[in-house]
Amino acid sequence: MDNDVSAGSGTTVVGRLALGVTLLAVGLGFTGLIDGVTAADAVPIARYVGGVALFLVGLVAFRDRDTVSGTAFSAVGALWFTWAVSAGAQVSANAAGLFLLLFALVALTLTVTAADQLARGTYGLFLVSLVLLAVADFAGNDGLAEAGGWFAVAAGAVAWYAATAALAHWPTAIPRRAARPGVTATG
């Protein structure tokens, strides 16, 4: 699919935008890139955009018989909402890390079942981010949390690009090339 791309379904585009914005906001909060902005500042975005809106987009996708997007967006939306409402609660670092590992299991499932390269990239980067953030909680390591934030930023950028590419008819797949000159790729 070089330049001949389909716009995708409206629910997929909206879902990717909501996921992208949430990942960018939370990820930037963990990186500490912007002075005075932390992940706690992204809680309202995670609750309403990543949680409520993404969950509703998932339900609409189910209604449209898009079970892949419906599953992805409703599951991730429910988990973002849970993360947001529990942020600041008095839970142990190990409990927070465990939640992030469970969230990572969902991201792993979405990574291996994603239908296109950009979705696999988004969920794969998100998976790495969640694992790093979980380990950071277990170990009390701010450096790992910052690294996890950067992976979340990268995942958010890929999700944003996927949504924008679908609307703008930009390329959404990397063309396959032969392994070496003179070899014809099959498939």
Based on helices, strands and strand pairing, what is the structural class? mainly alpha
What oligomeric state is this? single chain
Largest pleated sheet: none
Number of helices: 6
Protein name: GPR1/FUN34/yaaH family protein
Organism: Streptomyces phaeoluteigriseus
Subcellular location: Membrane
Family: Belongs to the acetate uptake transporter (AceTr) (TC 2.A.96) family.
Describe, in short, the structure shown:
The protein is mainly α and 187 residues long.
How would you describe the overall organization of this protein?
- By secondary structure, this protein is mainly alpha-helical.
- The chain has a single domain, classed as Serine Threonine Protein Phosphatase 5, Tetratricopeptide repeat, CATH 1.25.40.
- Helix content is 72%, strand content 0%.
- It is built from six helices and no strands.
- Helix 1 (10-31) packs antiparallel against helix 6 (142-168) and helix 5 (117-139) packs antiparallel against helix 6 (142-168).
- The chain is globular, with a radius of gyration of 17 Å.
- The two termini are 13 Å apart.
- The relative contact order is 0.18.
Topology summary:
Elements: H1 10-31, H2 43-63, H3 67-86, H4 93-113, H5 117-139, H6 142-168
Overview features:
187 residues; mainly alpha; Serine Threonine Protein Phosphatase 5, Tetratricopeptide repeat; 6 helices
